[in-house]
Structures are given as structure tokens and as C-alpha cells.
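Q: Predict the assembly, please.
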Amino acid sequence: MKSNSHVEYVAQVDRPGEVDVAPEPGDYAFGTFVAVPRSAGDSAIGVVFDATLVNPEFGALGPRLTTSTELQTLAPDQLPETATLIGVLLLGSRSAGGEVTQGVVAHALSVGDAVHRLVDAEFEAFHSADDGLRAAYLPLLLAHGHPLTSELALAITQRLVEAFPAHAGAVAVLRDSIAWRTRIEAAG
Amino acid sequence: MPVGTTKGPGESPHTYTLVAPDADDQLKIGEFVAYDARVDGELRSVLGRIDARRPLKLYPDAFMADPQVAPSRVAGLIGFDHATPELYEFDVAVLGYFDDTLGFVNPRVAPRAGRPVYLVPDDDLAHALSRIPHGKPGAAHIGSLLTRARDRVPITLDVNEFASTHLAIIAGTGAGKSYLAGVIVEELMQPSVGAAVVVVDPHGEYGTLDEIANHPGFRGDGYRARTLVVRPEQIKIRRDLLHPSDIYQLVGSTHGLSGPQREVLRLALRAVGIDRGRRWTYRQLTEAVNDVELSGGPRNAGDDGADYMLVKRALMWRLNATLGRQDGIFDDYEHTSLQELIRPGQCTVVQLNEVPREEQQVIAATLLRRSFDGRVGTAKQRIGSDDERYLPAPVFTLIEEAHHFAPAGEEVPTTNLLKQILAEGRKFGFAVGLISQRPGKLDQDVLSQCMTQCILRVVNPVDQQAIAGAVESAGRELLAELPALSKGQAIVAGAAVNTTVLCRVRPRLTPHGGESPDVVDAWRRARSQLPPVDRSLEAADPESARTPEERLFGSIQ
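A: Predicted assembly structure:
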């Protein structure tokens, strides 16, 4: 829908009626990894880090002749104009052949690109490297400056600990360090 | 299992820093850690000793605002619930990899950052720290490594080293130096060693070593260690065996000798033939003092005969009060035999309590001089087995309160003798162990020539500086631990161990004779022996019934 920077985009969640099966809130929860396929066959990979509700009726609190229930009958072609917007931070990309790159994505997304949720296997594939686990995007994420990125990093590292038990020790070191900085030092 | 990770080079080329959470508080000061490194193509375990510990990550001060709330609980409230979040940085002194032939070999390269560091296993450590394994002949087992569980890593001294290159035991009062000295004597009396030991004991603390004779630990293969406790009244020194300097020291001990007195004494001693090794008696000496006058009188004695008479009379008084005492240790004919005092498998405790310090010094000087001369003469085959001074075996002499026998900035009969023994004794199998609670008052040359040092708790800053100046082998960082050592804990450094270690002294087999007395109990027992107060007298004399305060302040009221 729009972008705030080269790596930060805002997407609109599909509403009931726009697609066969509208996404549930759990599908675009905080920390959900998403993919944005592009025409070349590759995909940008990002993570949901923010959500905004849009309601044009907010503030229009005056009396109305028709209630919202009656509108279904009296004006069935009127579309509800509320929307849920999610902030997506791009963390890397996946080529058509499945090769993963983590860090800043070279090509910007386009308005109208579809955003899909990554399933667990795709999440693991994005983090798998020849020598094991890789989360090279974490410095980019922590440097982003959004107030929620530290909590996002903690959520991601916690999910990595569960998804990659063989590498739990290494990820836990990162997780604890981030937690110390964002929680203990911030509170002290 | 790794306990930490190397961080990088330390402040000096032979140190590195190590970062570790140390959740189990294993990485104590003095603990030994190692990392694996490839040296000349071979994988080696490079040992190091932890010298300092600093916190890197601790809870903020604000989390400790309420003593009743643990900072971890505050952290838990904000979502941080790790049990051991602390992180520490350690300074490690590199010792090197241990080679059975060469000892510790320093690879001369600090470890790269990120190397896993592990605690050195007990067995490897015991092998690397002590020059001779516990239980082998020539190993004096004095205790175990302080940073490990008791008796897990035994610490032994190489008897050959400290019994030839000398030993120093330094500690503040009550820190356990005589206890440790007793442990070392016990080790020297083991059947595997059977040393000839002499203890100069100015406080009578070592008499309990006579238990050695009855203890089964000191017997084996036909060997049975024995202890000879020589009390002051049993010591006899023949006057003509005294060195002139001993006599000057002894006679001038009370108020010093004036120049004329010293001159008269010098001429009298020459007249009896002390410089020619002739035998003489006390009577001959006093007559020689008189003869000095007959032969023209001393130079500078005075302008007239009356002054000279005063000089002679004062000298005679001093001679009679010291060298000539009938009940004293000096005799014209009797002399405690050297071969009786010094023999292998025997610990001789020369008790000098109740003896004035000047006499102690002269006794020690005579004993040391004659036994050293005996060893040198025997080693050079100048002395045969028929000579009273014949000493065929090496001798180890422990000197308690060594600062009385080699004081700093003062010349006593033993000072130069000790310096000579420390310099030359190794060649002739004659070693000393110096025990002192005031290393600051001990001659620094003497202290620095003791190649093995056992240092227990020392609180006095002057003494700490003296140790730091004289004991080069113990690291400065470990010496900083001196005030923090507990009773029976020692820093052992020098030639008899492979590296400086913190040692927990083992329990004695024989009772310790230097225990502090229970003064409260002594007072209680003494009070119980006093006659009961006669209350009838108090009734007859009201004044006696009043308390001392009432007697003092009664008139004011």
C-alpha cells in the first residue's frame, strides 16, 4: 500500500469479501514472518512489527438515519471502509531457486504486491544456512529505531530457540543480551 | 567442559583476559585454568592462574534499593528471569604447557579471542604443580590446593630443593607459621626422608614434636624417627669455642662496651690465645684482663691508673654477669656434642625460652657456626669420623623468630653467619629455614636468598612491602591476597614448587605446641584457687565492705 522507507512497508489486511478466506488475526500477529512475491519469481521476506486500525467513521459521531444493521438491507452495495494496516519490515529475500539472502533487500516493493504469511517450514528455510542457523538481519532490525523492534527481536529469538533446538545455546546468548539491554538497562 | 572464553591479551605479555559467567563460583583467585593451543605443531594445554576478577555485567544499583527485594526479583518483574545473568572478566597469568622435563613452557603467544577455557582436572593439576608427586620419596606433602576441595589436589614441596636452597616461612602472629613449620618437620622425619633437622625454638613451641617418636607414621623398614628436645639448662657451650664477636656481643649486651673496655677485652682474649685456637678457661681470661694492666695498660685507657681501674672493674663486672655465670650455659669443659644434636632421622629442638635474647643469638651462632664448619670440613674431607664435628649427612636448621637472628640494619653474631650459610650452604648440604612474623625487620638480603617461600596471612603493610621486595617469584597479584588469607592458608612460591600456589596446610600428625592460651579459662581457674573472702572482716571494718568506687568518691557525697 505504501512505504515509509526502503525496508519498512505498510500493507492492508484483506477483509472478508475481498478474498475467499480472509486472514485471521493470528495470521498477521506481531512477529509473523511474511513473504512478498515479485514478478521475477523471487520474494522479499519481512516481519510484521506494527499494526494500525483505520476507521473513517471514527469522529463521525452525529445522529444517522440508518443504523449499520439496516444498511445491509437498504444499501447492500455500500462497502465498509474500515481497514487493518500492518507494518512490515523487510529482512531479506528468497530467490526463485530458494536461495536466501538476509539483510537489506536491493529492490523495493511495488504498490499492490501481495503479502503472504510464511509457514513454519519456510521460516526455518529462511534461517537455515550451510553451517546451521543464521539470523544476520538482527542488527538491521535492532538499528531500525522503532520502539517495538527490541521486543520484536526478543520474539524472533525466542521462536528461533524453539525451532532450532540444536542452536538454542547460541540464540539464547543473543536473546539474553538483547533482553538485558532492552529490559534491565532500560529500567535501571 | 568450558567454563569461560578467552577475550584477549592482558596488560602484560604473559597475561590474558577471560570472560565467564562463573555461575558456580568456581573461578576463584589462584585457580588454574587452561586453553588448548597448537604449539610447534602439537596440541598443548596451556595452563594459567587467575589473578584478578572484575564484574562486567551486574544489576543496576537502583534494583537494590530495597534490601528485602532481591534484584533478580525486580528483573523478573520486567520480564528478565535468567538465573545467572552476571558476567565477569578475569586476569589470567600464563604459566604455559607443562613438560615433565622442562616444567612450564610459556608459548609466548596470548590466546586468540574466543578460545574455550576449562578448569584443569585435579590429577593434571597435581602433576603440574608439585615437582614430585605426593607419596614419592623426596616429596614433602604440606597440604592441598586452596581453590579445590580439600585433598583433591595435594601440594608437595621438593625436599631436595628447599633443603639445599633454603626456605622462608613468613606470617603474621597467629596465622599458623609454627604449625606449618611443624608440618614440614613431620615430612622431613618421614621414613622416606629421615632428615637431620635442628629447630632453634626461642618460644618453646616445638616441644610437641617429641610425639614423632611414638607416632606410627614415622616408622618403617627398620627406621624410627626420634626427637631430642634440648632445654636451656641442658645446653652447654664451651667458652673457648666462642667466636670473639660472640664474646663482644655477649659481654656488651646490657649497656654496650666502651672503647677502653673493648680494647682490654681484645688484648685479654689475644693473651689467652683465642686467635690461635688454644683452649682457655674463664679463670685464665680474667687473669689475662689483669695481665693487660701489668703489660703496660691499654691504649686510650685513661690518663691515670685510677681511670683504668674503673675500666677493668666495669669489664670484670660485665664478664661475671654474662660469660662467667656459674649457672649459665657457658662452661670451661662441658660442651653439648654436635653429633649428639645432629644425626639423620632426628629432629633436635633447641628450646631457648627463658634465655635472654643476646644469649639466644650467641647459642644460635655457636650452633650454626660449628655445625656449618662441621659440614664443610666433612664434605671437604678435612674432618674425620673421630672428630666431634664430623657431620656426614646434610643438615636442615629451622630458625624461629629469624628477625632476632638476622635483624635489618643491626649486626648480631648470627647475621653474617646466616648470610654465609645462605650463600654457600647449598654446596655443602647445609640449609636453613627462616621463620618470621616480621619480615620487615628481617634482613632483606637474608630473606631474598631463601629460594622457597611459604607466606601466610600478613596484615602489616610494611611487612607486605618487605615480602613483595624480597619474594620475586610470587606474583604481585597473589601477594595482594596476603591480608585475606585465613589461618592455615599459605602462598607457596619458589624453587620447591613448579609455580606459585595457594595452599591449605594439612592437619598435623603431632600436636601443635603454639596454640594461643585460653586466657579466660586461665583467669577462672586462678580465681577459683584464691582464698574465699572473709565476710566477718567486712562486718568488723565497714570500710572494707565498700566498693573501690565508694572508697574513691565517698567523700564527694
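Chain A has a mean pLDDT of 90. Chain A touches chain B through eight residues (CB under 8 Å).
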